[in-house]
Amino acid sequence: MALTPDKTSGSSGGPPARDARPGAAAGPGVREALSTARRSLVGLLVLAAVLGGILAWGAGTDRTGWGPKLALDLEGGTQMILSPSLQGEDAGQEVTPEQLDQAVEIIRQRVDGSGVAEAEIATQSGDNIVVSMPGVPSAQTRELIQTSAQMQFRPVLTTAPAEVVPEDQRVPEDELPEPAAEPADSSDPNWITPELYREFETTDCTSPQPPEERERQDADSAVVACEPETGTKYLLGPVEIQGTGIKDASYGTAQNATGASLNQFAVNLQFGPEATERFRVLSERLYGIGAASQGDPRSQFAILLDGQVVSAPQMNAVIADGQAQITGSFTEEQARFLAEQLKYGALPMSFEIQSEQQISATLGADQLRMGILAGIVGLVLVCVYSLFQYRLLGLVTISSLVVAGVLTWLAITLLGWSANYRLSLAGVAGLIVAIGQTADSFIVYFERIRDEIRSGRSIPAAVHHGWRRARQTVLASKAVNLLAAGVLYFVAVGNVRGFAFTLGLTAIADLLVVFLFTHPVMVLLARTGYFGGGGRHSGLNPESLDAVPLYRGAGRLREPGAGHDGLTIAERRRRAAQAAPPPDEAPEDAAVGASSSRRTPEENA
Description:
single chain; alpha+beta; Multidrug efflux transporter AcrB transmembrane fold; Alpha-Beta Plaits; 3 domains; six-stranded antiparallel sheet; four-stranded antiparallel sheet; 17 helices; 47% helix
């Protein structure tokens, strides 16, 4: 009988024979697996080297440090108390609680947009606003916080998807729009210069525009702006109406001309006297454009808050009384939020820094040390369990955890540099929880390999088939982790988002390590003499795993039903329990048999 190179053999009833050189007879499939494993390890090494090189360059040029940035609760920072004051027509009046709450939201959007993470913004005594942020804010951030909100109404000249237009799809230089005359009004296409249109094509609205870029928008010129809500890019004409012209804004159910409800939400706008006339002129022009050419984007006008489009409705009628209604597929929450933006977004309010002081960490270095200690204890316990359960194979788990830790550290540090991400104590908790989740992936993989060995496969074949079975389980598990982390991040507020962020980040790192390190290392180890031959302390020893080989020697094959038939440990125990009789069944049968064998003296006679 001919034996294939990946089958084990042995004498009858003895342990499977071991190939002293598991890779000696490697075929094309084996060589391809080894080549793929080596390429994966090289790819991981290149990734780590690139990330490490970027960090080394940043640290060497004093652009960043070697460690992650810490949040307010661990590092401390700056606390500023802002005193609001109304400007313009409302100067001298008292700021209402609603105006103060809206100002808090505007400042929060500005601070988050400038990249400052883990900032805390709240009202104080119903009069002031307290802004606490880690580190020392730059002069630009300080100015951004103090500036009053700016709302503008601009006509739309043209629109496009948010992405950058590919080079091969851009308008050639000789075909770029060239103004033929002075613009007649703010909707005139002659506002579009070649330079502005090229800027429009190359602007990327898939990521937030920096506040300083939005601040440079000239009220008397055409500009490029983004609407994050719909992922649309706009080229807009000069400002027609300032947001201060809005007298009131509210939301409710939309009604038709007869007053009947349309069963959808709408936002109602009311302009002041001067803005009413300006809006009438604008509505006449835009409605005329829409009537002449259906679908023309120039029949729309954009409402901008701090240089960002919050809504771009189409003009469907001439509005002469200053009372407009914005309709669309609004939910009640969306309609309420837009109404608040319109009502308070153009607050003629500026902020004076009443006081500024450095504050110590709210939790401090002691809590950080305890968190790190908890992580080290958890890591040690996982390592001890791995070595006890898997012998030398546990070293693969330990080295995989180290690689995952290095990748996570590099990612968090680089994110602190590029996106100003700061690690809070909640984020540290997410890293600690991730240790167990990462180790779980390795356990699933190793147990699959051991099940294949128990069914009689050689160790290289067991690694191959075990990976095919474990891969889907690992992917499903990490998909659930990422989904949970994503939902938690977008639903939660405050430090809980830091926990969700690190949880999702470590899930991605875990996938990279399992696919680019753990599995390739197992493929290479399975071709070594010790691990591939099932060494006694390798964790893959067929004898200690009660494996029954396919070929039993002396021309005999494993009988059907012998061994474990590829079943898991739980399935084998369940089968054994079902085959065994109940504990009280045998004594009862014996008693029945004994009673049936007795005879009375009369029967014997």
